[in-house]
Design a protein that fits this description.
about 400 residues, 11 strands, six-stranded parallel β-sheet
C-alpha cells in the first residue's frame, strides 16, 4: 500500500462548531491540508445541509453537504446541556483551533466563547465567522450570503445594465469569507510559533464582500462616482466582454492592451486601431458603445469556432462559455484532478477537488463526508468516556 504523504497541517487539531457553508468551507480546506477536523453536529438532526436535497448521492448524502465536509469526523453533541458543554470544553482544551459561526455572543452563555476556552488552552486559536463581525452597530445581526451581496454593493454591479441587480450564481461571499478565515487561521498558527499564544480570528461576510469589490470599489474611491452595472462588460477595459458568433454562439473576448486590440483589428481586416477614438484603451472606454456595435456586426459574420481558432492563433485572450458539465470534462480540469471520486473508500460521492497543489505535502482526499455521528463513539472514547457512559449519553439524547 502506498504511503499517504504527510499533509502540511498534519498534527493540527480543529474543533469545528460551524455549519452550512462559510465556516465548513474553511475547515474543509484545513482538513484537505492534513488537519484533523472534528465536526460537531446536533444529535439526530446534524448540519442543516444534510437535508438540502435533492440532489443527493445514492447513499442519501446531499450534494450540498458533500461540497464542504470531506476529510472530517462527525461528533453529535447537544451543547445546550451541561454535559454537552463539558465534552466541548474537553475537546477545545486539546485542540489547536476552534471554528464557529454562531451569532455574536451566542456561545458565551454556554461557556464556549474565546475568553472562556482560552483559560484552559492559552494556545487556542478561536476563529469566528459572522455576518457583520464582532464589533460595530450591526454585529448582532444574522448574516446571509444573498443579503450581504445586496448590502455590500456587489449586486449593484452584477447583471445587465438595463435589468435588475443579480446575485452571483454561487454563494461567493460565503466562500470568499471562508478563504479569508482560513488565511487568518494560518497566520495565527504562524504567530503562535513565536508567541506561544493563540488569538481570536474575526472574519465577517460584509467585510469580505466589501473587499471583493476590488478595482470597482477603488474606481469609486478614486472618482467619487457610483460604478454602474455593465453586464458582461469591463469597467476599465474595452473590448473585454461577451460577443456572439454566427448562430448566437457566445464567447468571451478579453483584449487587455492596445497591442492585442491592433491584432484583433488586423484579423478583422479593419483599421480601427488607427482611429483616434479607438487607438488607446482610455479612448475605447470613452467610445465603448460605438466600438462594440461595430464588433458585434463583425463577429456575427462567422461561427464561434472560427473566431476562437483565429483569436487563439493570434494570441488574443478568448474563451468559450461552458456549462458545468463541459467545464468539469475539460482535459485541463481532468489533468488537474478537479473531480474527486470516493469509490475506493466505498462511497458513491464525487466532489470538486482542491485547487491547492503542494509539491511536498499535497492535499489528500482521505475520507468522504461522514455519516451523522459516525465518529461519536471513538471521539468520546479518546476523551476517556467508557462504553456504558457513552450508551447513557446516547439514551439521554446528549450525543
Amino acid at each position: 500500500m502506498t504511503d499517504i504523504p504527510k499533509g502540511a497541517l498534519q498534527g493540527i487539531k480543529v474543533l469545528d462548531l460551524s455549519r452550512v457553508l462559510a465556516g465548513p468551507s474553511s475547515t474543509q480546506i484545513l482538513a484537505d491540508l492534513g488537519a484533523e477536523v472534528i465536526k460537531v453536529e446536533r444529535p439526530s438532526i446534524g448540519d442543516e445541509t444534510r437535508h438540502w436535497a435533492p440532489p443527493a448521492f445514492s447513499d442519501d448524502t446531499s450534494a450540498y453537504y458533500a461540497t464542504i465536509n470531506r476529510n472530517k469526523k462527525s461528533l453529535t453533541v447537544d451543547i445546550t446541556t451541561a454535559t454537552g458543554q463539558d465534552i466541548i470544553k474537553k475537546l477545545a482544551a486539546e485542540s489547536d483551533i476552534v471554528v464557529e459561526n454562531f451569532k455574536v455572543g451566542g456561545l458565551k452563555k454556554y461557556g464556549l466563547d474565546y475568553e472562556s476556552l482560552k483559560q484552559d488552552n492559552p494556545r487556542l486559536i478561536y476563529a469566528s465567522l459572522t455576518g457583520f463581525g464582532q464589533t460595530g452597530p450591526d454585529a448582532a445581526l444574522p448574516g446571509y450570503d444573498y443579503i450581504i451581496q445586496g448590502l455590500s454593493g456587489l449586486m449593484s454591479i452584477t447583471g445587465p445594465s438595463d435589468g435588475e441587480p443579480h446575485k452571483v450564481g454561487v454563494a461567493v461571499v460565503d466562500l470568499f469569507a471562508g478563504l479569508q478565515l482560513t488565511i487568518g487561521i494560518q497566520a495565527a498558527l504562524i504567530a503562535r510559533q513565536s508567541t506561544g499564544l493563540g488569538q481570536h480570528v474575526d472574519v465577517a461576510l460584509l467585510d469580505s464582500a466589501l473587499a471583493m469589490l476590488a478595482n470597482v470599489g477603488m474606481n469609486h474611491l478614486a472618482s467619487g462616482q457610483v460604478p454602474p452595472r455593465l453586464g458582461n462588460q469591463h469597467p476599465n477595459i474595452v473590448p473585454y466582454q461577451v460577443f456572439a458568433g454566427a448562430g448566437d454562439q457566445h464567447f468571451i473576448l478579453a483584449c487587455g492592451n492596445d497591442s492585442q486590440f491592433a491584432k484583433l483589428c488586423q484579423l478583422m481586416d479593419t483599421d480601427w486601431h488607427t482611429d483616434e477614438r479607438f487607438a488607446t484603451n482610455p479612448a475605447r472606454v470613452a467610445h465603448r458603445q460605438l466600438l462594440c456595435d461595430r464588433l458585434v456586426e463583425k463577429f456575427a459574420e462567422y461561427p464561434r469556432a472560427h473566431w476562437l481558432a483565429v483569436l487563439h492563433e493570434a494570441g488574443i485572450p478568448c474563451g468559450a462559455i461552458h456549462n458545468i458539465s463541459e467545464a468539469l470534462a475539460m482535459p485541463q480540469a481532468v489533468a488537474r484532478e478537479m473531480v474527486v471520486d470516493f469509490a475506493a473508500q466505498g462511497s458513491p460521492v464525487k466532489a470538486l477537488g482542491s485547487p491547492i497543489k503542494l509539491s511536498a505535502s499535497p492535499v489528500t482526499y482521505r475520507t468522504p463526508p461522514p455519516r451523522l455521528s459516525e465518529h461519536t463513539d471513538s471521539t468520546l472514547s479518546d476523551l476517556g468516556y467508557d462504553s456504558a457512559t457513552i450508551a447513557k449519553l446516547k439514551a439521554d439524547g446528549i450525543v
